[in-house]
């Protein structure tokens, strides 16, 4: 529930690893709608005929509006875009809803549950950006027809491939759009044996020549895809041909700056420069709402965090997995089942729920959280669970599906 100053209410898929009694397994979990941000999913018409439908996540404050709008454009995971999950950018969405914005995250044609077809132009980065920008333009045009959207106060942002699409979008006439934000924008193509870096520089030069809107660019020092040298070249090509852009090159962010805006800790990096940019283009920055925090499990005194042998039910393989967990980044969570199944999840949206859901799916039994971040949250094990563990110890482990791999990543992965 979102309330004005007494009280808007906090979820990107990061990395998740799950192991049952035998091999390493992983599954992706669809997160529930966050009622605290009035989250819902709508379908937006796209394409020349308007018959394709884009699965779009919407967050908004309570009330009739009209509200300013932020559209956030997603990147691309490796492989089939139809297998990609719905992006939400929950941490950035929360920050903007607190400031009275509606936030929309459209999944472009062929991605996730959106219909239509994803078109890949290989190493022609200019064409790739323009193709994706067409879907973003459809989302902008749709949003401007809604009576709870302020059609004259819109900002468009994008991460990775979404950043490339955002800058391509800025070459056309966009009524109501005041500015663009490019977070680690680009597209990597290792499949076509081409110089994709040079093609990206060429694409941004082309977009700069036709650019119509001011933009903010943010790239991190340890971005695994588009490092400082390439970011500087892309920006230089853009402004040299006439583009309006301020480049912010920030330092290292955790293991990979490419997923910075998807991180719980990313706002500390992106907000200051984003606030400055929003003020420059006449967009609001003052907090108008509060977001009720998620309830937290209380810390227990069951064991020390680094006491691997204290974790119940684990085999030697599971203890190895817990040692791996101790080296993971926060936010993180570790779950375990009576039959020895376990799972850890780090970064991204709601690692607690992801760890539990994957542990239960792979273990076939209810799981419990053992640790969250740097705390132990486990309570004493009931006798019934101890008996279940004894039975599980002499029960053959389930076979793993042949197509299971080992880890799943999203916006933080190096596949954009």
UniProtKB/TrEMBL annotation:
| A Pfam family per the record | Peptidase_S15
Task: Tell me the ranges covered by the Xaa-Pro dipeptidyl-peptidase-like domain, including all copies.
Answer: 54-212
What are the alphabetically sorted keywords of the record? Hydrolase
**Would I find Hydrolase among this entry's keywords?**
yes
- What molecular functions are annotated in GO for this chain? hydrolase activity
Q: Which domain of life is it from?
A: Bacteria
Hydrolase as a keyword of this entry, yes or no, is yes
PANTHER family hit by this protein: DIENELACTONE HYDROLASE DOMAIN-CONTAINING PROTEIN-RELATED (PTHR22946)
Q: Provide the protein name.
A: Dienelactone hydrolase
């Amino acid at each position: 529930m979102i309330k004005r100053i007494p009280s808007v209410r906090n979820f990107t898929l990061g990395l998740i690893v799950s192991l049952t009694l035998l091999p390493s397994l992983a599954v992706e979990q669809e997160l529930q709608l966050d009622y605290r941000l009035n989250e819902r999913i709508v379908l937006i018409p796209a394409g020349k005929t308007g018959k394709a439908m884009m699965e779009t996540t919407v967050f908004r404050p309570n009330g009739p509006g009209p509200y300013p709008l932020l559209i956030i454009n997603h990147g691309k995971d490796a492989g089939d875009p139809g297998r990609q999950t719905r992006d939400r950018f929950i941490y950035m969405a929360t920050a903007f809803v607190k400031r009275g914005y509606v936030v929309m995250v459209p999944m472009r044609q062929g991605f996730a549950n959106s219909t239509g077809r994803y078109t890949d132009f290989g190493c022609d980065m200019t064409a790739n950006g323009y193709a994706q920008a067409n879907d973003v333009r459809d989302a902008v045009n749709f949003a401007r027809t809604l009576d709870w959207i302020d059609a004259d106060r819109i900002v468009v942002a994008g991460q990775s491939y979404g950043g490339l699409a955002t800058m391509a979008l800025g070459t056309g006439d966009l009524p109501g759009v005041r500015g663009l934000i490019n977070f680690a924008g680009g597209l990597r193509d290792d499949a076509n044996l081409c110089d994709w870096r040079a093609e990206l520089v060429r694409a941004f030069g082309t977009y700069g020549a036709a650019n119509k809107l001011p933009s903010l660019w943010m790239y991190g020092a340890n971005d695994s895809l588009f490092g400082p040298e390439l970011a500087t070249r892309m920006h230089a090509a853009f402004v040299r041909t006439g583009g309006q852009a301020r480049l912010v090159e920030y330092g290292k962010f955790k293991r990979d700056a490419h997923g910075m805006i998807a991180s719980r800790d990313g706002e500390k990096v992106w907000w200051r420069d984003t606030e400055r940019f929003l003020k420059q283009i006449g967009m609001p920055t003052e907090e108008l709402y509060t977001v009720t925090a998620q309830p937290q499990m209380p810390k227990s005194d069951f064991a020390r965090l680094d006491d691997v042998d204290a974790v119940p039910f684990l085999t030697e393989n599971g203890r190895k997995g817990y040692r791996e967990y101790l080296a993971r980044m926060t936010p993180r969570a570790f779950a375990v089942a009576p039959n020895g199944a376990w799972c850890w999840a780090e970064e991204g949206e709601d690692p607690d729920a992801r760890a539990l859901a994957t542990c239960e799916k792979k273990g076939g039994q209810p799981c419990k959280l053992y640790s969250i971040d740097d705390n132990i949250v486990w309570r004493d094990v009931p006798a019934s669970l101890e008996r279940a563990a004894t039975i599980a110890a002499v029960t053959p482990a389930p076979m793993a599906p042949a197509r299971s791999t080992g880890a799943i990543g999203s916006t933080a992965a190096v596949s954009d």
